[in-house]
Design a protein that fits this description.
single chain, mainly alpha, Growth Hormone, Chain: A
Length: about 450
């Protein structure tokens, strides 16, 4: 009897929607710092480098370190409990972020958010993989990935609903407190309604009892899979640009046209993220499943093609003369930007042994967030300050974001390597999981 028979499609879809909502809250907390960056900077007197640290490295530092031991626990203990604690933790620190009075306090709160969010995706990815077979896993994880654009959209909408057209006197503190308290309420709902699924049941039925390897054995097993490694580098380098784009876009547009209606700008950015970015994420996942059924290399080719299209569009978007033209290019940029998420998440789960799926996601996010979230906004902010010595604020921001877009190049190359190595690694993963069951 398969786990698909045990859980109805209605329940599986409900779980997927709820986990996507939780993931959306994850990205509301991340994105809203970038949206409100100009006002946080002004209130606390922060430099661009300090703001970059706040949106990037300070968050990513503990996130990346804590994620691995939490994932080790998630591969052994109740994932619903771990997800609930994680959501309540990052939501509580989000509320404290709004109460901070200086860079030290707000930095500590941001690190606390990182600790909580470290437990979110490893547990969620593992739960989804035990509800959906590998043939439909990219699609399911693609829908889960829509939490990113939907969370970003919600962040813009929430901010727009609480500010005026001019963006003057924005009460950024109240926004963080409201978000934090709402997230805590969602954590209670998660704990009450979700049930822990059987591990590995989609591959081998409900009577699976796979031994859990020691911590370092889990690490070594994953690090020996070449296409898993290259996928991590591909998505990390692509997200390096994406996180920088999100963190500094509001500041750039305010510099480009200070008189543009700020409330309308937030609503437009929210709609773009909630439609084209979400649509690209969904489309990429569906294309990966259909194309991948014919040729497994598609899981590498599709992200490489999508990011290749993002490279020129991203650069041009920061050199057009108006906010309107930037937003048009951003719409196309985000459509392609979302396409690599579902295929990458599917690779991380399918290549991992069934008893190490949470660990796979944690290691995957360790690399992604260390490079992308820790490095992207921080390095871009540092470059803005660096270019300000010879250029005005607008030009220095343009130069910094243009250089940042060039990081797409090694991302494209990484996904091409994935396409070359994936067939062998995919077949090995199936053999390895079969051996795990037979050995027990």
């Amino acid at each position: 009897m398969s786990n698909q028979n045990k859980h109805s499609n209605g329940y599986r879809n409900f779980v997927l929607v709820l986990l996507t909502l939780v993931y959306g809250f994850n990205f509301i907390d991340r994105q809203i710092v970038g949206i409100l960056a100009p006002f946080i900077q002004k209130d606390l007197g922060l430099t661009n480098t300090e703001m970059g640290l706040l949106t990037g490295l300070l968050f990513a530092a503990l996130y990346t370190v804590v994620a691995i031991p939490i994932a080790w626990l998630a591969d052994r203990y109740n994932r619903v409990n771990i997800l609930t604690i994680a959501l309540a933790t990052w939501s509580g620190f989000t509320a404290l972020f709004g109460l901070a009075g200086n860079f030290f306090q707000i930095g500590l709160a941001r690190m606390g958010v990182g600790i909580g969010e470290a437990g979110g995706s490893p547990a969620s990815h593992s739960i989804i993989s035990d509800l959906y077979a590998k043939e439909e896993r990219a699609g399911a994880l693609g829908i889960y990935s829509m939490g990113i654009p939907l969370g970003i959209m919600a962040a813009y909408f929430v901010t727009a609903s609480l500010v005026g057209p001019s963006g003057e006197d924005v009460n950024w503190r109240r926004i963080f407190v409201i978000l934090g308290l709402t997230g805590i309420a969602l954590a209670v709902i998660v704990r009450l309604v979700l049930r822990e699924p059987v591990r590995g049941a989609m591959e081998f039925g409900n009577n699976v009892d796979v031994a859990q390897p020691p911590f370092f054995e889990s690490l070594i097993a994953l690090l020996k899979i070449p296409s898993w490694w290259w996928m991590c580098f591909g998505i990390a380098l692509g997200s390096f640009v994406s996180y920088s784009f999100s963190a500094w876009q509001t500041k750039y547009l305010l510099l480009l046209d200070p008189d543009f209606n700020f409330q309308n700008l937030l609503l437009i950015l929210g709609v773009i993220n909630g439609t084209t970015y979400a649509g690209g994420t969904f489309l990429g996942a569906r294309l990966a499943d259909s194309w991948g059924a014919k040729n497994i290399r598609a899981y590498g080719w599709l992200p490489a093609i999508a990011i290749s299209l993002c490279l020129p569009i991203g650069i041009i978007s920061f050199w057009v003369p108006s906010v309107e033209s930037h937003l048009i290019l951003t719409t196309v940029f985000l459509l392609f930007m979302g396409m690599y998420l579902g295929p990458s998440f599917a690779i991380a789960q399918t290549l991992a042994p069934i008893n190490q799926r949470a660990m796979s996601t944690a290691l995957f996010f360790f690399i992604l967030n260390l490079i992308a979230l820790g490095g992207g906004p921080t390095i871009t902010g540092w470059m803005i300050d660096l270019f300000k010595h010879t250029s005005a604020d607008l030009e220095s921001t343009r130069y910094a974001l243009t250089v940042t877009c060039l990081v797409f190049v090694p991302s494209i190359l990484s996904f091409l390597v994935v396409a070359r190595k994936l067939p062998k690694d995919w077949a090995s993963a199936e053999e390895r999981n079969l051996e795990l069951i037979q050995s027990d």
